[in-house]
Every structure is written in structure tokens, then in C-alpha cells.
Design a protein that fits this description.
Number of helices: 8
Number of strands: 15
Shape: globular
Largest sheet: 6 strands, mixed
Number of domains: 2
Oligomer: single chain
Mean pLDDT: 95
CATH architecture of the largest domain: 2-Layer Sandwich
Low-confidence stretches: 1-5
Structural class: alpha+beta
């Protein structure tokens, strides 16, 4: 399925801004995630695993669609959506969070980025949190705007990723702490680069803020990184299972609660803030000790 004409693009299933570049670099098969195509096959998945743990891979993860919460009440609104205490979260910081419904069920487990004082992004797993957030906003008095910004992430992961990033973006990348991000300008385009990734390896996520430059960015990273050992790749199921990383739909669903998943450290039931599903999770927690 390497011929891009085999795919139908439209409003139902969207094309990643990196799509053509991934085909150029050998993507052979795709699946659908968050209503977008994601490359799943660059050849042998076992070799992809070895490329990840021994060298570095570049993954198109534009399917991690962003939900932006913006406005004077953004911090209060975001806290209402998750059981994790965000009171100390700073601009430039990322946090892994669980989103729960009124029954305590898991709706998503995104990475949350505090982009500005009153702007947050949820970088999503596969579920329609944009609609959930719109519904919550419509039935509350919070002063927020909910949108999906033009933001598309790539993941550069593996032990050689730091050297590749320094080659492309300079020594400033060395100051980036785990689960923090910085803004960069590259070839006139703003990027947000974070020390995060779905691999249990050293890695970075590069958030492109203008989809028109997607193929240029992917090709630039590959052209510079390939002589240093970088390979085109896809997220490795083998490595994420080894690393104990849960996958939404595969390991948890709306019918699963975070306490039974052993995620207690991300659930702050004894704090004074309220969130959707707090009463349900308190009841579930109490039942564990009866």
C-alpha cells in the first residue's frame, strides 16, 4: 500500500502533514487513529524495535491531536477534567494526566502542556476529547475557548536522539528537562519541543505549529539525522509493553477506572479541588478496603 492513491482523504479520515514524507521514506502501511492515518509499517516491526533501542527513529504522531483550552478560567477548567493535582504546574511543563467521566471511567490519558499562563494543550490518545471538552464548557460557567489548534507532533526517540537534536537545533536542546518543553524557531516556523515520548527511551516530541511545513520538517530531520543513525519508524508496541506503558483501547477503556490500573499516583482524591468523577473514584477507593 505504498501508493498514496490507495488512500481516501477527507473530513472523515484526515491526512497527516507528514504523510508524503513518510511515504518517501518507506512507509508501507497505515492504520487510523483519532480519525487520521498513522504509518504503522516501515518493513520489519522487530527491526523497528532494534532501531529504537540502539539508534533512533522518527515517528509521525500527528494523530496525537491537540485540544486547546484557552481563557481566564483555563486552569480551573483543566483541573476539573482530571484527578491529578495541577496546582503547581508551570508554563513550559508537561504532565501525564488521566481524564475521567462521572463514573470514574478513563476517557483518555494525554500529555498536558501548559503553553502559556492561560493556554493548555491536551496531546491526546485515541478518543474524541474535543467533543467532551465542548460539552463540559457548554454546561458550565467557565470563561474558556475550546479548539483544535494547527499543531502536529513528531517523535524522535532512541539513544542517538539527543545528538541528532543538537545537530539540528543547537546546544540549547541540552537544557531541556524531562517533561518540560521550549519554543524554537526553525526555518522561520515555530516549534514546541518537549522531552517526552511514547517509547521508554530517551526522546523528544517536536510540535509543528504550521501544517503547511510538515513534509519539509520531516525531510529535514531525516536528511540530517540519517547519516547519524536515524531511521524512519513507528511507535513500537514491543517496547511500550516492555516499558509497562499502557495504551488506550488496548489496556484501558471508558469502562476501566484508573485505580484498578494501579495509577494511584496520578489520582489525588484527598485534595480540595473537584473534578469529574471524584465521588465515583472515592467510592471505588473505599470499596478496596472493605
Amino acid at each position: 500500500m505504498s501508493n498514496k492513491n490507495d488512500f481516501g482523504f477527507g473530513t472523515q479520515i484526515r491526512k497527516s502533514p507528514f504523510f508524503d514524507a513518510t511515504v518517501k521514506w518507506g512507509a508501507k502501511d497505515f492504520s487510523v487513529y483519532n480519525h487520521m492515518y498513522i504509518p504503522r509499517d516501515f518493513g520489519d516491526p522487530e527491526q523497528n524495535f532494534w532501531n529504537l533501542i540502539n539508534e533512533a527513529i522518527l515517528c509521525d504522531v500527528a494523530v496525537e491531536r491537540q485540544v486547546q483550552i484557552k481563557g481566564p478560567d483555563a486552569s480551573k477548567f483543566v483541573q476539573m477534567m482530571t484527578p491529578r493535582d495541577l496546582s503547581s504546574m508551570q508554563v513550559g511543563q508537561c504532565k501525564y494526566v488521566i481524564l475521567t467521566n462521572q463514573h470514574g471511567g478513563v476517557l483518555n490519558d494525554p500529555i498536558l502542556l501548559r503553553v502559556e499562563e492561560d493556554v493548555y494543550w491536551f496531546s491526546l490518545a485515541d478518543s474524541d476529547i474535543l467533543f467532551w471538552a465542548h460539552g463540559l464548557a457548554a454546561n458550565s460557567d467557565y470563561d474558556v475557548e475550546i479548539s483544535e489548534p494547527d499543531v502536529s507532533p513528531l517523535q524522535l526517540q532512541g539513544p542517538k536522539s539527543r545528538d541528532i537534536m543538537v545537530k539540528i537545533f543547537g546546544d540549547e536542546i541540552l537544557d531541556l528537562k524531562y517533561y518540560w518543553f521550549k519554543k524554537f524557531i526553525h526555518n522561520g516556523v515555530e516549534l514546541i519541543i518537549s522531552r517526552t515520548g511514547w517509547s521508554s527511551e530517551l526522546g523528544y516530541e517536536i510540535f509543528l505549529t504550521d501544517s503547511d511545513h510538515g513534509n519539509d520538517l520531516y525531510n529535514t530531520i531525516m536528511d540530517i539525522g540519517h547519516p547519524m543513525g536515524l531511521k524512519p519508524g513507528h511507535t513500537s508496541t514491543i517496547r511500550r509493553i516492555e516499558g509497562g506503558m499502557l495504551s488506550y483501547h488496548a489496556d484501558m477503556t471508558i469502562n476501566t477506572n484508573p485505580l484498578e490500573l494501579g495509577m494511584d499516583k496520578f489520582i489525588n482524591l484527598d485534595q480540595d479541588f473537584d473534578f469529574i468523577g471524584k465521588d465515583a473514584l472515592i467510592n471505588i477507593s473505599n470499596q478496596r478496603f472493605i
